[in-house]
């Protein structure tokens, strides 16, 4: 990453500190020449103040104007300061933006005991003579870009008590003797891509070590039994390493151990008993292969505050005693095979904040007192076999933010208070047997934070209350498959954030409110299988919906013209009164059906029109014949504009426009592959429309494409060789891309037309996939940033990313691109461009789109690349971007979403990073999406095998808030809190 190369203004501050004698001398001698002694004294006192009045300078007491000359640190000549000597013992420069190598000038500070350079931009190796700072007891270099090996010289700093080297870019080894630094109290090496290593077989000397972390440092092998020799250990973190074997029972013999983290490793076996580790507060053994039961004696860990065992294969019951622990606040047991009932005491003895037991086989009633302590905020128990009524107490729990209880067997009414819960953000109750009505008293002031309300597939009755519409943050409202009736409220304009509305399979009647067409963010609308009647309001056509289902209602009349689109061909079925003007809509045709009165008139008009057209045609033909005898339509006025030297002629092209050369056809015409010379060179020719007069739209499209492409020369943008313009047809001649377009490679089941010369069973491996993503990002980045005026592509999708013989990606099809900055063009952009599944939500309701719509579409491509799924799979009921978001929201591990064909242990982190990037890019709000430049930087980092992707996650760019805002919903998963490629 390009770091600061020129000195920022702060650099003076830095120098000021670490070479005090030099800088002070210069600046102060200047003062001395022009000012009186008193001012010198004031400067010294101010300096002391800015150093937070260290006690070692307490003797700086003023009695007369030159008294400072008597202070031992000061040397004066003629009552004016000439030297300032400070024995620096502690130097803390953390959280600055200081670049450069390790500042060896510090060696001059021979008294230094404490050095903190963390959270800066230092790079290069730690010097091999760092042991010259022999007095160091505390060395904190964390969160910098130091790389190479950790030198053996560090181990010669025999007095070290605290050594923090975490989150840097070390790519070599660390000296094993580090485990022999017997005075160490804190040793933190986590988040470094060290050469794989194993923990030493004995820890016999680290008797004072309190804090030990080597999370994500490529540790393999087992955790040694001797871990218990570190008898002072309070904090042990070995997470995110490919460790194997079992968790040694000796860990639980550490009497002072308070926090134990062994998550995301490959350890297996059962969890040892923990009788003597009475101080344990945090146990995080999540994401492992642990089996067996949760030890009964965890119920005796009086200090236990967090028990995190999620994503293992634990079975059996949850020990009763755990429910009675007095300090427990965080319980996460989801995704195991736990069975039996949930101990009823949970919440009764301790203030729970988080309680998650989802995806198990738990049965019976739900604990009554989870919110007894008044702190519960996360509650997840979906996908179990729980039953009975939801505890009334949940209705008096104002701290609740997320309640996810779907897919259980809960019955009875929703506790009344839940409808009033002020902090509720997500309430998901779908797939139960809940009854009762949606309450009328629900108001924006009670549910002001509600973003997701899902209660589909229950037995809820009554109407959709108007009050439910006063929720400005609501993004998803899913109430399908209930027994709702009555008419839909019309006063819905406050649904400013609503993206998904599903009220299907109910008994709702009356008209569809036209106001639905004004909802600015709506992309999915399912009102199917109700009793809705009347006309479809034309406003619905204003929406840009990825999913629309109005079938099985009693709607009538013509469907709005803008909805007559093959993408909606299953959206209107089973409404006997509806008609369309196109047969591909799979419903009755309008003119065949009604309007009997006007039928005769219509016929007459048609006949007259045909007659007139024939007259015109005859005249035209006659004229053409008279003026240009025997010429076919092609060479009427062929005009070739070339953009570089060509090795073919226009007749090579024209003679190749044969049906057997067609390799594709798009919205505006066919694409041919034409061999242009005997040596077999091929070009791709896009022919815009057949031999009919170009309409205005196509003419514009053509002009735009030529104007842009002719002027762009970039490695990742498809090269336009020339264009041939005839009166009736336009031909764009491109370089031929041997490996076709990306979509041919992605979707196996759709791969019907094999690519000439390529084995049909070949799949893209991950390095190739990443290379393609990078190339496409470079092309788009260039268009957004490096052209004379920024260009928005407007139709980025996998079929517009072409691949040459080396799998270099090139962006194609600028038919829809427009110069951003051109005035007066905006009006012509209203026609809906883009492709379903790739469309950014804002496309639907504004003509003032910016380049973030390309970022969205590119994000969808990234999701396609990482999951192997289609952008808009008609078998799924949601588009890929929503599916991916949903996958995370449901608490599933990212690795489950990834394409099985490309992922393996070595690349799963990288693919996950690119998947996450896809999530960021598809944020609902354009402003929260990254720019293409940022996307490119992240991809570069992801593809750099040396880069430690998680460094500085706390420092430079914490992406969690971005993620949360991006969908107006909070991330449910705690382990999602580290963004990996985050050096935007
Ligand atoms: C600073 O160093 C000088 C010379 O080495 C020594 O005489 C003095 O005692 C030291 N002062 C402190 C506060 O360490
Ligand atoms: C380690 O990283 C540095 C700096 O990025 C690089 O110059 C060096 O070649 C790398 N060493 C290894 C062994 O990869």
TrEMBL record:
Residues annotated to bind ATP: 686
One annotated GO biological process: signal transduction
Keywords for this protein: ATP-binding, Cell membrane, Glycoprotein, Kinase, Leucine-rich repeat, Membrane, Nucleotide-binding, Repeat, Signal, Transferase, Transmembrane, Transmembrane helix
UniProt keyword annotation of ATP-binding present: yes
Regions that span the bilayer: 12-32, 602-624
Top-level taxon in the UniProt lineage: Eukaryota
InterPro entries on file: Kinase-like_dom_sf, Leu-rich_rpt, Leu-rich_rpt_typical-subtyp, LRR_dom_sf, LRR_N_plant-typ, Plant_LRR-RLKs, Prot_kinase_dom, Protein_kinase_ATP_BS
Protein kinase domain sequence ranges: 657-947
One Gene Ontology MF term: ATP binding
Chief location: membrane
Pfam family, one: LRR_1
Membrane topology term: Single-pass type I membrane protein
GO terms for cellular component: plasma membrane
Compartment(s) of residence: Cell membrane; Membrane
Keyword Isomerase: no
Annotated family: Belongs to the RLP family.
PANTHER family (alphabetical): LRR RECEPTOR-LIKE SERINE/THREONINE-PROTEIN KINASE-RELATED, RECEPTOR-LIKE PROTEIN KINASE HSL1
Stated name of the protein: Protein kinase domain-containing protein
